[in-house]
Specification:
This protein is α/β, with parallel strands linked by helices. The chain contains 12 helices and 13 strands. It has helices at 8-11, 22-37, 41-53, 59-87, 113-126, 147-155, 167-178, 243-256, 296-305, 324-336, 347-353, 376-387, and strands at 100-105, 131-135, 161-163, 182-186, 198-204, 232-236, 261-273, 278-279, 286-291, 309-315, 342-346, 357-358, 361-374. Strands 1, 2, 3, 4, 5, 6, 7, 8, 9, 10, 11, 12 and 13 form a 13-stranded mixed β-sheet that branches. Strand 12 and strand 13 form a beta hairpin. Helix 2 packs across helix 3 (41-53), helix 2 packs antiparallel against helix 4 and helix 5 (113-126) packs parallel to helix 6 (147-155). The protein is globular, with a radius of gyration of 21 Å. It starts with 7 loop residues before the first helix and ends in a 28-residue tail after the last helix.
Length: 415
Protein backbone atom coordinates (compact mmCIF):
# COMPACT_ATOMS: atom_id res chain seq x y z
CA UNK A 1 0.00 0.00 0.00
CA UNK A 2 1.25 3.48 -0.85
CA UNK A 3 1.92 6.06 1.78
CA UNK A 4 -1.19 8.13 2.42
CA UNK A 5 -0.95 11.89 1.81
CA UNK A 6 -0.62 14.40 4.62
CA UNK A 7 -3.70 15.74 6.36
CA UNK A 8 -6.22 17.71 4.35
CA UNK A 9 -5.71 20.82 6.45
CA UNK A 10 -2.01 20.73 5.62
CA UNK A 11 -2.69 20.35 1.92
CA UNK A 12 -5.43 22.85 1.08
CA UNK A 13 -3.61 25.95 2.25
CA UNK A 14 -2.05 27.77 5.18
CA UNK A 15 -3.73 27.72 8.56
CA UNK A 16 -4.85 31.34 8.27
CA UNK A 17 -6.83 30.56 5.12
CA UNK A 18 -4.90 33.09 3.05
CA UNK A 19 -5.14 31.08 -0.14
CA UNK A 20 -7.15 27.85 0.07
CA UNK A 21 -5.97 25.59 -2.75
CA UNK A 22 -8.84 23.70 -4.42
CA UNK A 23 -6.52 21.77 -6.72
CA UNK A 24 -4.65 20.47 -3.69
CA UNK A 25 -7.93 19.29 -2.21
CA UNK A 26 -8.76 17.40 -5.40
CA UNK A 27 -5.27 15.90 -5.41
CA UNK A 28 -5.83 14.74 -1.84
CA UNK A 29 -8.89 12.80 -2.96
CA UNK A 30 -7.03 11.19 -5.83
CA UNK A 31 -4.01 10.34 -3.67
CA UNK A 32 -6.18 8.89 -0.92
CA UNK A 33 -7.74 6.67 -3.56
CA UNK A 34 -4.32 5.54 -4.74
CA UNK A 35 -3.11 4.94 -1.20
CA UNK A 36 -6.13 2.80 -0.35
CA UNK A 37 -6.17 0.81 -3.58
CA UNK A 38 -2.44 0.74 -4.31
CA UNK A 39 -3.16 2.06 -7.81
CA UNK A 40 -1.12 4.20 -10.15
CA UNK A 41 -1.90 7.91 -10.39
CA UNK A 42 -3.91 7.47 -13.59
CA UNK A 43 -5.93 4.56 -12.20
CA UNK A 44 -6.55 6.38 -8.92
CA UNK A 45 -7.75 9.50 -10.75
CA UNK A 46 -10.19 7.43 -12.82
CA UNK A 47 -11.51 5.58 -9.78
CA UNK A 48 -11.79 8.82 -7.80
CA UNK A 49 -13.95 10.40 -10.53
CA UNK A 50 -16.11 7.27 -10.75
CA UNK A 51 -16.67 7.40 -6.99
CA UNK A 52 -17.63 11.07 -6.75
CA UNK A 53 -19.84 10.95 -9.85
CA UNK A 54 -21.76 7.92 -8.60
CA UNK A 55 -20.91 5.92 -11.71
CA UNK A 56 -19.30 3.21 -9.60
CA UNK A 57 -21.63 1.38 -7.21
CA UNK A 58 -21.15 -1.18 -4.46
CA UNK A 59 -19.81 -1.33 -0.93
CA UNK A 60 -16.34 -0.05 -1.83
CA UNK A 61 -17.75 2.97 -3.66
CA UNK A 62 -20.21 3.79 -0.88
CA UNK A 63 -17.48 3.62 1.76
CA UNK A 64 -15.22 5.81 -0.37
CA UNK A 65 -17.92 8.44 -0.81
CA UNK A 66 -18.55 8.46 2.93
CA UNK A 67 -14.84 8.99 3.63
CA UNK A 68 -14.59 11.75 1.04
CA UNK A 69 -17.68 13.38 2.54
CA UNK A 70 -15.88 13.57 5.87
CA UNK A 71 -12.88 15.15 4.14
CA UNK A 72 -15.19 17.68 2.48
CA UNK A 73 -16.06 19.34 5.79
CA UNK A 74 -12.66 20.89 6.66
CA UNK A 75 -12.37 22.17 3.10
CA UNK A 76 -15.89 23.65 3.30
CA UNK A 77 -15.07 25.31 6.61
CA UNK A 78 -11.87 26.85 5.23
CA UNK A 79 -13.63 28.14 2.10
CA UNK A 80 -16.59 29.62 3.95
CA UNK A 81 -14.42 31.20 6.65
CA UNK A 82 -12.16 32.78 4.08
CA UNK A 83 -15.10 34.03 2.00
CA UNK A 84 -16.78 35.55 5.05
CA UNK A 85 -13.57 37.36 5.96
CA UNK A 86 -13.55 39.10 2.57
CA UNK A 87 -17.31 39.72 2.52
CA UNK A 88 -17.17 41.45 5.91
CA UNK A 89 -14.06 43.47 5.18
CA UNK A 90 -11.81 41.60 7.62
CA UNK A 91 -9.40 40.71 4.86
CA UNK A 92 -7.96 43.35 2.59
CA UNK A 93 -8.57 43.55 -1.13
CA UNK A 94 -5.93 45.18 -3.32
CA UNK A 95 -6.80 47.20 -6.40
CA UNK A 96 -4.51 47.50 -9.42
CA UNK A 97 -4.21 50.81 -11.26
CA UNK A 98 -5.52 49.22 -14.46
CA UNK A 99 -8.59 47.05 -15.12
CA UNK A 100 -8.34 43.41 -14.08
CA UNK A 101 -10.40 40.81 -15.94
CA UNK A 102 -10.56 37.32 -14.44
CA UNK A 103 -11.54 34.07 -16.16
CA UNK A 104 -12.19 31.38 -13.59
CA UNK A 105 -14.09 28.25 -12.64
CA UNK A 106 -16.46 27.19 -9.92
CA UNK A 107 -15.31 23.58 -10.29
CA UNK A 108 -11.87 21.98 -10.42
CA UNK A 109 -10.65 22.14 -14.00
CA UNK A 110 -12.05 21.07 -17.32
CA UNK A 111 -14.18 24.03 -18.45
CA UNK A 112 -12.05 25.11 -21.43
CA UNK A 113 -10.64 28.12 -19.63
CA UNK A 114 -7.30 28.39 -21.46
CA UNK A 115 -8.77 28.81 -24.99
CA UNK A 116 -11.17 31.43 -23.60
CA UNK A 117 -8.29 33.34 -21.97
CA UNK A 118 -6.38 33.33 -25.27
CA UNK A 119 -9.47 34.43 -27.20
CA UNK A 120 -10.15 37.28 -24.75
CA UNK A 121 -6.54 38.42 -24.88
CA UNK A 122 -6.71 38.65 -28.68
CA UNK A 123 -9.89 40.73 -28.44
CA UNK A 124 -8.17 43.17 -26.09
CA UNK A 125 -5.07 43.28 -28.27
CA UNK A 126 -7.25 44.04 -31.28
CA UNK A 127 -8.56 47.05 -29.35
CA UNK A 128 -5.00 48.30 -29.07
CA UNK A 129 -4.64 47.48 -25.37
CA UNK A 130 -1.41 46.24 -23.82
CA UNK A 131 -2.27 43.01 -22.01
CA UNK A 132 -0.35 41.06 -19.38
CA UNK A 133 -1.46 37.60 -18.28
CA UNK A 134 -1.41 36.65 -14.59
CA UNK A 135 -1.73 33.11 -13.26
CA UNK A 136 -0.77 31.02 -10.28
CA UNK A 137 1.64 28.68 -12.06
CA UNK A 138 0.14 25.45 -10.76
CA UNK A 139 2.52 22.49 -11.25
CA UNK A 140 5.14 24.60 -13.02
CA UNK A 141 8.07 22.74 -14.54
CA UNK A 142 11.78 23.37 -14.21
CA UNK A 143 11.56 26.39 -16.51
CA UNK A 144 9.00 27.99 -14.17
CA UNK A 145 6.05 27.45 -16.55
CA UNK A 146 3.18 25.01 -16.44
CA UNK A 147 1.28 23.48 -19.36
CA UNK A 148 -1.26 26.30 -19.48
CA UNK A 149 1.51 28.92 -19.68
CA UNK A 150 3.22 26.98 -22.48
CA UNK A 151 -0.04 26.70 -24.41
CA UNK A 152 -0.77 30.41 -23.96
CA UNK A 153 2.75 31.26 -25.15
CA UNK A 154 2.04 29.35 -28.37
CA UNK A 155 -1.35 30.97 -28.82
CA UNK A 156 -0.24 34.49 -27.79
CA UNK A 157 3.39 34.98 -28.84
CA UNK A 158 4.90 38.09 -27.33
CA UNK A 159 2.23 38.61 -24.66
CA UNK A 160 3.87 38.80 -21.20
CA UNK A 161 2.75 36.17 -18.70
CA UNK A 162 3.62 36.37 -15.02
CA UNK A 163 3.09 33.27 -12.88
CA UNK A 164 2.95 33.93 -9.16
CA UNK A 165 0.84 32.26 -6.48
CA UNK A 166 0.48 35.75 -4.97
CA UNK A 167 -1.50 37.50 -7.69
CA UNK A 168 -1.22 40.86 -5.90
CA UNK A 169 2.58 40.68 -6.12
CA UNK A 170 2.23 39.44 -9.71
CA UNK A 171 0.08 42.45 -10.58
CA UNK A 172 2.63 44.82 -9.05
CA UNK A 173 5.40 43.16 -11.06
CA UNK A 174 3.34 43.36 -14.26
CA UNK A 175 2.71 47.07 -13.81
CA UNK A 176 6.33 47.84 -12.99
CA UNK A 177 7.82 45.83 -15.87
CA UNK A 178 5.31 46.15 -18.70
CA UNK A 179 3.04 49.19 -18.07
CA UNK A 180 -0.06 47.31 -19.24
CA UNK A 181 -3.47 48.74 -20.02
CA UNK A 182 -5.17 45.62 -18.69
CA UNK A 183 -4.39 42.55 -16.58
CA UNK A 184 -5.97 39.25 -17.61
CA UNK A 185 -6.17 36.91 -14.63
CA UNK A 186 -6.21 33.21 -15.50
CA UNK A 187 -8.10 31.07 -12.96
CA UNK A 188 -8.65 33.89 -10.50
CA UNK A 189 -12.24 33.58 -9.26
CA UNK A 190 -11.17 32.23 -5.86
CA UNK A 191 -8.21 34.61 -5.47
CA UNK A 192 -10.08 37.46 -3.85
CA UNK A 193 -7.10 39.47 -2.61
CA UNK A 194 -6.85 41.14 -6.02
CA UNK A 195 -9.89 43.19 -7.03
CA UNK A 196 -11.42 42.25 -10.38
CA UNK A 197 -13.26 44.73 -12.58
CA UNK A 198 -14.82 41.82 -14.46
CA UNK A 199 -15.27 38.29 -13.10
CA UNK A 200 -16.05 35.72 -15.80
CA UNK A 201 -16.94 32.27 -14.48
CA UNK A 202 -17.03 29.27 -16.81
CA UNK A 203 -19.28 26.27 -16.19
CA UNK A 204 -18.97 23.10 -18.28
CA UNK A 205 -22.34 21.95 -19.64
CA UNK A 206 -21.16 18.33 -19.50
CA UNK A 207 -20.30 18.49 -15.78
CA UNK A 208 -21.86 21.72 -14.58
CA UNK A 209 -22.11 21.58 -10.80
CA UNK A 210 -19.28 19.34 -9.64
CA UNK A 211 -21.62 16.53 -8.51
CA UNK A 212 -23.13 19.00 -6.00
CA UNK A 213 -20.35 18.58 -3.47
CA UNK A 214 -17.26 20.55 -2.53
CA UNK A 215 -13.84 19.00 -2.91
CA UNK A 216 -12.81 16.29 -2.39
CA UNK A 217 -16.27 14.65 -2.25
CA UNK A 218 -17.20 16.50 -5.44
CA UNK A 219 -15.54 18.98 -7.78
CA UNK A 220 -16.91 22.29 -6.50
CA UNK A 221 -14.27 24.75 -5.32
CA UNK A 222 -16.93 26.90 -3.64
CA UNK A 223 -20.66 26.61 -2.96
CA UNK A 224 -22.93 27.63 -5.83
CA UNK A 225 -23.81 30.81 -3.92
CA UNK A 226 -20.36 32.12 -4.94
CA UNK A 227 -21.87 32.80 -8.38
CA UNK A 228 -23.31 35.98 -6.85
CA UNK A 229 -19.83 37.50 -7.25
CA UNK A 230 -19.72 36.81 -11.00
CA UNK A 231 -20.36 39.47 -13.64
CA UNK A 232 -20.49 37.02 -16.56
CA UNK A 233 -21.30 33.30 -16.38
CA UNK A 234 -20.34 31.31 -19.47
CA UNK A 235 -21.76 27.85 -20.14
CA UNK A 236 -19.05 26.11 -22.16
CA UNK A 237 -19.56 23.14 -24.49
CA UNK A 238 -23.17 24.28 -24.72
CA UNK A 239 -23.41 22.62 -28.14
CA UNK A 240 -22.62 19.17 -26.71
CA UNK A 241 -25.83 18.87 -24.67
CA UNK A 242 -29.46 18.87 -25.77
CA UNK A 243 -31.68 21.93 -25.43
CA UNK A 244 -33.58 20.59 -22.41
CA UNK A 245 -30.36 19.93 -20.49
CA UNK A 246 -28.98 23.33 -21.46
CA UNK A 247 -32.15 25.08 -20.27
CA UNK A 248 -32.10 23.23 -16.93
CA UNK A 249 -28.48 24.18 -16.32
CA UNK A 250 -29.04 27.82 -17.26
CA UNK A 251 -32.13 28.00 -15.03
CA UNK A 252 -30.14 26.74 -12.07
CA UNK A 253 -27.29 29.13 -12.81
CA UNK A 254 -29.82 31.96 -12.82
CA UNK A 255 -30.93 31.12 -9.29
CA UNK A 256 -27.48 31.93 -7.92
CA UNK A 257 -26.04 34.38 -10.45
CA UNK A 258 -29.13 36.44 -11.24
CA UNK A 259 -27.13 39.65 -11.70
CA UNK A 260 -24.56 38.09 -14.05
CA UNK A 261 -24.76 38.19 -17.84
CA UNK A 262 -25.37 34.61 -19.04
CA UNK A 263 -23.61 33.48 -22.20
CA UNK A 264 -23.28 30.17 -24.01
CA UNK A 265 -19.97 29.11 -25.57
CA UNK A 266 -19.17 26.43 -28.13
CA UNK A 267 -15.63 25.27 -28.87
CA UNK A 268 -15.17 25.07 -32.62
CA UNK A 269 -12.26 23.01 -33.99
CA UNK A 270 -10.13 25.14 -36.30
CA UNK A 271 -7.39 22.72 -37.38
CA UNK A 272 -4.61 20.37 -36.34
CA UNK A 273 -1.44 21.85 -34.84
CA UNK A 274 1.85 20.26 -35.88
CA UNK A 275 4.12 22.51 -33.82
CA UNK A 276 4.66 25.07 -36.57
CA UNK A 277 1.37 25.58 -38.34
CA UNK A 278 -2.29 24.61 -38.23
CA UNK A 279 -3.18 21.97 -40.78
CA UNK A 280 -6.67 21.87 -42.32
CA UNK A 281 -9.22 19.56 -40.75
CA UNK A 282 -9.81 16.30 -42.64
CA UNK A 283 -13.41 15.68 -43.70
CA UNK A 284 -13.30 12.17 -42.29
CA UNK A 285 -10.70 10.28 -40.31
CA UNK A 286 -10.03 7.38 -38.01
CA UNK A 287 -7.84 8.45 -35.12
CA UNK A 288 -6.36 7.38 -31.84
CA UNK A 289 -6.59 10.03 -29.14
CA UNK A 290 -5.43 10.74 -25.60
CA UNK A 291 -5.46 13.64 -23.19
CA UNK A 292 -4.55 14.73 -19.67
CA UNK A 293 -7.13 17.45 -18.99
CA UNK A 294 -9.79 18.16 -16.39
CA UNK A 295 -12.71 16.90 -18.47
CA UNK A 296 -11.51 14.28 -20.96
CA UNK A 297 -15.09 13.51 -21.96
CA UNK A 298 -15.34 16.96 -23.52
CA UNK A 299 -12.38 16.20 -25.80
CA UNK A 300 -13.81 12.81 -26.74
CA UNK A 301 -17.24 14.28 -27.46
CA UNK A 302 -15.71 16.99 -29.66
CA UNK A 303 -13.91 14.37 -31.75
CA UNK A 304 -17.08 12.35 -32.09
CA UNK A 305 -19.06 15.46 -33.06
CA UNK A 306 -16.66 15.88 -35.99
CA UNK A 307 -17.80 12.51 -37.26
CA UNK A 308 -14.38 10.92 -36.83
CA UNK A 309 -14.03 7.31 -35.81
CA UNK A 310 -12.11 6.73 -32.58
CA UNK A 311 -9.87 3.67 -32.87
CA UNK A 312 -8.84 4.12 -29.22
CA UNK A 313 -9.04 6.76 -26.50
CA UNK A 314 -6.81 7.10 -23.42
CA UNK A 315 -6.92 9.47 -20.49
CA UNK A 316 -4.34 10.78 -18.02
CA UNK A 317 -4.83 13.02 -14.94
CA UNK A 318 -5.20 16.76 -15.41
CA UNK A 319 -1.87 18.60 -15.81
CA UNK A 320 -0.14 15.25 -16.25
CA UNK A 321 3.62 15.38 -16.75
CA UNK A 322 4.54 12.83 -19.40
CA UNK A 323 7.69 10.97 -18.42
CA UNK A 324 9.93 8.98 -20.82
CA UNK A 325 8.21 5.78 -19.69
CA UNK A 326 4.83 7.28 -20.63
CA UNK A 327 6.09 8.25 -24.07
CA UNK A 328 7.48 4.77 -24.64
CA UNK A 329 4.12 3.32 -23.62
CA UNK A 330 2.28 5.71 -25.95
CA UNK A 331 4.65 4.76 -28.78
CA UNK A 332 3.78 1.09 -28.31
CA UNK A 333 0.09 1.88 -28.04
CA UNK A 334 0.14 3.95 -31.24
CA UNK A 335 2.09 1.34 -33.19
CA UNK A 336 -0.38 -1.37 -32.18
CA UNK A 337 -3.46 0.48 -33.43
CA UNK A 338 -5.04 -0.67 -36.66
CA UNK A 339 -6.76 1.70 -39.05
CA UNK A 340 -5.86 5.00 -37.33
CA UNK A 341 -4.60 7.73 -39.66
CA UNK A 342 -3.01 9.78 -36.89
CA UNK A 343 -2.90 10.35 -33.13
CA UNK A 344 -4.59 13.39 -31.61
CA UNK A 345 -4.20 15.17 -28.29
CA UNK A 346 -5.05 18.62 -26.91
CA UNK A 347 -2.85 21.70 -27.14
CA UNK A 348 -2.25 21.42 -23.39
CA UNK A 349 -0.85 17.91 -23.89
CA UNK A 350 1.11 18.84 -27.00
CA UNK A 351 3.29 21.44 -25.31
CA UNK A 352 4.59 18.81 -22.86
CA UNK A 353 5.40 16.13 -25.44
CA UNK A 354 7.84 17.91 -27.74
CA UNK A 355 7.40 15.55 -30.68
CA UNK A 356 5.37 15.23 -33.88
CA UNK A 357 5.01 11.43 -34.01
CA UNK A 358 3.94 8.58 -31.76
CA UNK A 359 4.91 5.11 -32.84
CA UNK A 360 4.68 5.15 -36.60
CA UNK A 361 1.90 7.75 -36.80
CA UNK A 362 1.73 11.55 -36.97
CA UNK A 363 0.85 13.27 -33.70
CA UNK A 364 -1.27 16.41 -33.94
CA UNK A 365 -3.06 18.67 -31.46
CA UNK A 366 -6.67 19.56 -32.08
CA UNK A 367 -6.98 23.34 -31.96
CA UNK A 368 -10.27 24.79 -30.78
CA UNK A 369 -11.54 28.35 -30.67
CA UNK A 370 -14.40 29.56 -28.47
CA UNK A 371 -17.47 31.14 -30.04
CA UNK A 372 -20.25 32.84 -28.10
CA UNK A 373 -23.44 31.32 -29.50
CA UNK A 374 -25.83 33.12 -27.13
CA UNK A 375 -25.54 36.33 -25.13
CA UNK A 376 -22.86 38.13 -27.19
CA UNK A 377 -24.43 41.59 -26.82
CA UNK A 378 -24.66 41.26 -23.03
CA UNK A 379 -21.06 40.06 -22.94
CA UNK A 380 -19.83 43.05 -24.94
CA UNK A 381 -21.69 45.43 -22.63
CA UNK A 382 -20.11 43.78 -19.59
CA UNK A 383 -16.65 44.13 -21.14
CA UNK A 384 -17.17 47.80 -21.91
CA UNK A 385 -18.60 48.55 -18.46
CA UNK A 386 -15.55 47.01 -16.80
CA UNK A 387 -12.82 48.33 -19.05
CA UNK A 388 -13.79 51.71 -20.46
CA UNK A 389 -14.08 53.64 -17.16
CA UNK A 390 -10.54 52.70 -16.09
CA UNK A 391 -8.54 51.81 -19.20
CA UNK A 392 -6.21 54.44 -20.64
CA UNK A 393 -7.53 55.56 -24.03
CA UNK A 394 -5.60 56.80 -27.06
CA UNK A 395 -5.63 60.37 -25.71
CA UNK A 396 -3.83 59.30 -22.54
CA UNK A 397 -6.38 59.49 -19.76
CA UNK A 398 -4.37 59.46 -16.52
CA UNK A 399 -4.29 56.25 -14.56
CA UNK A 400 -4.98 55.87 -10.88
CA UNK A 401 -1.96 55.37 -8.59
CA UNK A 402 -0.01 52.18 -9.10
CA UNK A 403 -0.70 49.18 -6.93
CA UNK A 404 1.22 48.82 -3.71
CA UNK A 405 1.40 45.21 -2.49
CA UNK A 406 1.25 46.52 1.07
CA UNK A 407 -1.62 48.92 0.35
CA UNK A 408 -5.30 48.11 0.49
CA UNK A 409 -8.64 48.75 -1.12
CA UNK A 410 -12.02 47.38 -0.13
CA UNK A 411 -13.97 46.44 -3.24
CA UNK A 412 -17.38 45.55 -1.85
CA UNK A 413 -19.54 42.52 -2.50
CA UNK A 414 -18.15 41.67 -5.94
CA UNK A 415 -14.52 41.47 -4.82
Amino acid sequence: MREAPSTLSDRIGPADGKDVDPRAAMRVGSELTGAVLGRTTTEAETRFREWISGKRRGLEASAARAALKLAEWPYRFAVLARGAAYDRGWKRIHRASVPVVSVGNLTAGGTGKTPVVAWLARRFLDRGLRVVLLSRGYRAGRDGRNDEAMELAERLPGVPHIQNADRVAGAAEAEARFQPDLLLLDDGFQHRRLHRDLDIVLIDALEPFGHDHLLPRGLLREPLTALRRAHVIGLTRADLVDAATRDRVMERIGRYGAEAAPIEIAFQPSGLWDGERIEPMPVSAEVGAFCGIGNPDGFRRTLEQLGWKLAAFRTFPDHYRYEPADLADLDRWSAALTGADRILCTRKDWVKLGRATLGNRPLRALTIEPAIVSGLDAFERALDAAILPRARDSEGIPRSPRIDPSGTSNAGRRA
